[in-house]
Structures
1.
Amino acid sequence: MAPRAAAGPGRAPAPIPAAEYQHRRRALVELAGDDAILVLPAAPERIRSHDTHHPYRQDSDFWYLTGFPEPEAVLVLVPGRPHGETLLFCRERHPERELWDGPRAGPEGAVDRFGIDDAYPIDDIDEILPGLLEGRSRVYYHFGRDKDFDLKLIGWVNRVRAQVRQGAEPPHEFLELGHLLHELRLAKSPAELRQLRHAAAIAAEAQKAAMRATRPGGHEYEVEAALWSVWRHHDAVAAYTPIVGAGPNACVLHYVANNAPLRDGDLLLCDAGAEYRGYASDITRSWPVNGRFSKEQRALYELVLAAQAAAIDEARPGRPYAAVHDAAVRVLSEGLLSLGLLKGSLRKVLEAEAYKAFYMHKTGHWIGLDVHDVGDYKVAGESRVLEAGMVFTVEPGLYVAPSADVPAKWRGIGIRIEDEVLVAPGGPEVLTAAVPKAPDAVEAWMAG
Ligand code: GLY
Ligand code: MN
Ligand code: MN
């Protein structure tokens, strides 16, 4: 069935307002302190082949603080600077280049439209930045993320050091920016939650279309095509390369070839999320190619579903993040024992991590601007305590490799069920609940 543009996700939310970007920068500057300076380059453009580029995607941290979409830009935050704390270096307007590559904001547009205090041409950065570093004792920066930019920053610092005998005061502390910034990104604002919900709704619609694009004799890429069709209908792109794996391909955790035939009797695993205005979504469903689960497929599917339900139930303020994974592992292990896929006692299976033969990954990750979003999972050596406003995926699975030492009827079945969960004051809220999940609901949708 062809997806329709009007179905599912509903109206797009309002974009994040300039005032929120300002608020984020202010919060970061407060954390950094008055004697600091913060430097964030935009993502570089990347070559795909010869002279063609990968689609440009802004650096998530830079995007979080500016909403500025262009490459060749550098954000500099200077706490307490009397003429304004937010400086941006960016490309100048260039009518001829804009004819080829599209419009540029230019420094004037950066000030007028993006709430930047002072903007300068990127070509002037070598002249201006050493003067901004001078007199600041601490530099916050992502060291090691972009080697070319690391060298530029060191060069600017050295320019200040060279002036010491003239009275210049170079910075003497160099700190990891992510330590401050990623704590802010972990707690999602109401406007961010609206973007995340919309990205999730688009991804949900795409998963439903993918289910109905599945038929014996088809191919994995035809299912992938249904995903892309829905994403693009709603102005979204892939949040990551989708995984569409049928039969034993579902047991390959990072399978992305997506080109195998769909065989009657196989299960298909589809891990696919949309990115909308930079915000990611991440959903996995597993469904039978012919629309009906076999007995073994259904038994394993129901087990993964029960593990997911137990894990989601832990997504509450005050609970440790690790409880989510522990709940999934416990249910999966009990089930594997009762189905005869594992032997021994539950205690021994958990202690020896014997479940890892069939469940070898963690149960989820933060999600936001990055699909595997930033934010520490442990604080001072202990699992982080969940707070309202955090969003993460809950994605247990079972993967019985074709070579597994179990009865043949189980081999080659790979299942994952993945949803996004918002930690809300009243309990877990599943943002991706629009995709059929109970086995009967999956079968009914595919038959519809
Ligand atoms: N699709 C990436 C993940 O599930 O973590
Ligand atoms: Mn995930
Ligand atoms: Mn996923």
Note: The longest strand covers residues 36-41.
2.
Amino acid sequence: MKNILEAPFMVEMVRTLTEMYRHGWDERNGGNVSLMLSAEQVEGYLEPDRVLRTLPTGFSAPSLAGKYFLVTGTGKYFKNVQYDPAANLGIVRITEDGEHADLLWGYTDGGQFTSEFPAHMMSHVARLKADPENRVIMHCHPANILAMTYVHTLDEREFTRTLWQMCTECIVVFPDGVNVLPWMLCGTNEIGLATAEKMNTARVVVWAQHGIYGAGRDLDESFGLIETVEKGAEIYMKIAHLPRVNTISDEALHQLEGRFNVKGREGYLN
Ligand code: 13P
Ligand code: ZN
């Protein structure tokens, strides 16, 4: 058996979680990440028939049956992942009934996957329908995006337009915009379903007064997406209380659509 700690997906996951912590997005145990893996990726790194524990998920996701996920553990600090990946992360495979997860590696101290597993798995289902190459769901608590949900309307068109106006690259990185959920109780199937519903139309979902979800084809893409939204929110929080003398006009945003061959969300630009 090859050393799983040297598997490219594991190295990338640990690096990404460490970087998220360094960015201040994941205080204490804040945030969680799930990365879908193929059977080929895990082959040689673990024995697929050796199930360590079977964990109930509390929901049904039959379309994910047989799929492997590398997932952060509940209550785990991103700060510590690099020092003990096996205690802080786990690899699970969704069972045939779609209602359990077989643990194949990790959670060595008896832990289990994140409390936001419903939001992650339901969002994977939604994003895979929109983009069969989606592999990552990433959740964290960046300060500026949170701050923005206290002072800006949560109307999705308005919220997206404001962010697009904050940095030139925003519309290029998230042309599908940002969907927003009002404050809801986290860790529940209800917020999982609501998040997945929002994931049908955008790769970013903001949880008001809580944090952000980003989806992507790999860890870099989802990280970069959240990084860019957070940068837009940071600029907004620096200028929101000041008179706005200049802005990025809708005409300029249309020019960016042409230059970068992207299409802003239908009806969001004037
Ligand atoms: P977990 O420690 O269960 O992943 O929860 C952290 C979090 O961010 C909840 O929304
Ligand atoms: Zn959270």
Note: Residues 219-239 form the longest helix (21 residues).
